[in-house]
Amino acid sequence: MNSQVLLALGLIAQGLFASRFLVQLVKSEKANKVVSPTLFWQLSLIASFLLITYGFFRNDIVIVGGQLVGYLIYIRNLQLKGEWIKIPKMIRLFAFLLPFLLLLFLIFGLDYDWNGLIDNPEIEGFLLTWGTLGQLIFTSRFVVQWVYSEKLKDSVFPVSFWYISTLGALLIASYAIMRNDAVLFIGQGFGLIVYLRNLYLHHKTSFGRSKSLFLKFKPYRFPALMIFTAIVLFFNLDNWTVTESSEARYAQIGKEMVESGDYLHPTLMGIYHYHKPPMTYWITAVSYKIFGVSSWSARFFLQVALLAMLFLVYRIGLVYFSDDKKAFYSSMIFAAFPTYIIAGRALTTDAYLVVFVLLAVYFWLKYLENYKSFFLLLSYFMLGLGFLTKGPVVLIVPVILTLFSKFYLKEKQGPWSVHILGFGIFLTLGLSWFVFLFLEDPQFLDYFVFKHTVQRFATDTFSRSQPVWFYPALLIGTAFPWILILGFNFKRIWKSKDTQVMFLMAWIIVPLLFFSISKSKLILYILPIYPGIALAAAKVWLGLDEKSHKKWDRIQFGFHVLILIGLAISPLIDSNIVLNYKFFFILVITASLLVSLRATSLKVVDRTVFTAYLFVMGVTASSSYFFGSNPGLMNDQKRIAAFIEAEIQGSENILVYDKRMPSMSFLTEKNIISLYDGDEGLNREVQFEKGIAWKSNLINLQDEPDWLIKNSPKNSVMMVKKNKLKKLGSVHLVFENSIEIDGWILYY
């Protein structure tokens, strides 16, 4: 059988095994006691049959034989429930006999290597024993369950089943840690939650009225959301290195700050780089000081920023709605936006900017509760920090909300004296770095105000132009279906004069119009809009009737299925894409859980929000393996840097043709010499340079076309993008060897 089909069989089986316990947990929560649902045993039987088939075509007696015991127990439980007899007789006979026939064929029809079962050179003897012990304990739980059920003549789970499951999961989880197998650990971690929860239900002495699963976990549901989101965000965060171009640029500037000790004059590859205020560089430099310079440490505080955003959306929801349920739904919807995750996958300013925007909005809303001046001053202080992060854009959302509050909602904004003091704090803090550089060099004012503010908004100076409909189309894809839910209910919202939702719609619509008419457009520019979408969507969603909930739930499920299928078949669409089994494993587990939740009695209003979050978390976890396996597609130069370090001994310089590649500065300790030949990305702004040292690392080949032949330094490696070979010409005259790696040609 085709290896890909075999892999799919094995992964689907594992997904069904995981989803059966989700079904059991949800059913138990609804019943407020441990139950043994029929669907649990049906899923178990199907999964076991698939795994037996998988083991047969792999010629693996251990898998087939090991599954056979459980397979028979699953059938027996269906018999005890009276469900097995409902299956047509021929199907029952086929299902019962086939596994035995497959096992007999493997035993007597093959010359099997029995010694290989206990002699695996890749696993140490202790680890093999430890893992095997855990697996044996894990398997024995169903034997215990079967014996107990036979005594009662009913399919039930004894409390010992969950104790054995917990012990086995702990052993296998520790085995996974020793083997550095993150996927195995995650699987057992999820199982432990289920087993411990069932133990709690077993030992509970009094049972209350059944209620929503979310409400049942109300005291700790938000902390659980934060913890699980943190696990996903930090999962495999070092599986890929800094990517070109933005992340590598920010990461390298922070690195140069640490190396030079100059935190006021950002430099990129030795040349002053004043495109953005320094807050992001400072935060990154602090991370390097704590953890050392690495791709992981460059992204560490970025993940902290994402968690801070999630926390602030929840807190804003509590203040604004005075309703914990709406606040929690808002935070879960916000975490389910792909743009939220994108903001943490590569280092940029946007996540930090949104944290300061949300802090400013939160403290302003706290101020409007009781007009305590301290909160308003804190709000202006956060605006100052935001200005040091990305300049004037920090003001867009807070100013719009303040104007809407004052002139449409007619809310008092407190005494002007406090605002004047707060504005003074904002100006003093926010402009401090700008004033410092202006006093050093007056041309900095023109550079930042006009070139990097006015021109960025009004012209295509930075080659980031997109059509006016770019952001509305982006919102449909990245805030699906929540932005559509708001759109289809906008007329009703307008007629009802719901001031809370109208306030949030102002948060969404006005900034969206502002960014849409701007010439410069990137995906994360509109990140400050998404908290408003999440808050408004939560309020509107909870106000819809059950019929609407079911309709949007079906639409969202269809959307998720399409995305998962697209990800699974992506190598068929683009042959350059490489996906490993761990990627597929997490994807299948995610799909299985989404399908399983639809088979439970979880309320649709809860399920739609929960599955939206679960879907994005699953895709996020699997994407880390995609990033690690496809460095060429991700503009990750880790394989190039590794080849230079390991294979090209004595190389001191890396010549990069017509590209600015800060990632090579970040990943190696080599001297990087950029060769300019018309690419605007290398048209560096050197007007602030006080010397000419930079000229030795930025060569203009259009002025010096013979530089490579006459002045190229010894012990050099040259990187040329494959699509620029024709433009470069006869570079092979200078170098003896060449190799292609991830779309680049290395000459050495």
From TrEMBL:
Listed SMART domains: LAB_N
A biological-process GO annotation: response to iron(III) ion
Source organism per UniProt: Indibacter alkaliphilus (strain CCUG 57479 / KCTC 22604 / LW1)
Cellular compartment(s): Cell membrane
Residue ranges of the TM segments: 38-57, 90-110, 125-144, 156-177, 183-200, 220-237, 300-321, 342-365, 377-404, 416-439, 469-489, 501-517, 523-542, 554-573, 579-597, 609-628
Keywords: Cell membrane, Glycosyltransferase, Membrane, Transferase, Transmembrane, Transmembrane helix
Lipid A biosynthesis N-terminal domain mapped to chain residues: 9-80, 130-201
Name of the protein: Polymyxin resistance protein ArnT, undecaprenyl phosphate-alpha-L-Ara4N transferase
Any one Gene Ontology molecular-function term assigned to this protein's record: lipid-A-disaccharide synthase activity
Keyword field contains Transmembrane helix: yes
Domain of life: Bacteria
InterPro entries: Lipid_A_biosynth_N, LipidA_mod_glycosyltrf_83, RgtA/B/C-like
Membrane topology: Multi-pass membrane protein
CC per GO annotation: plasma membrane
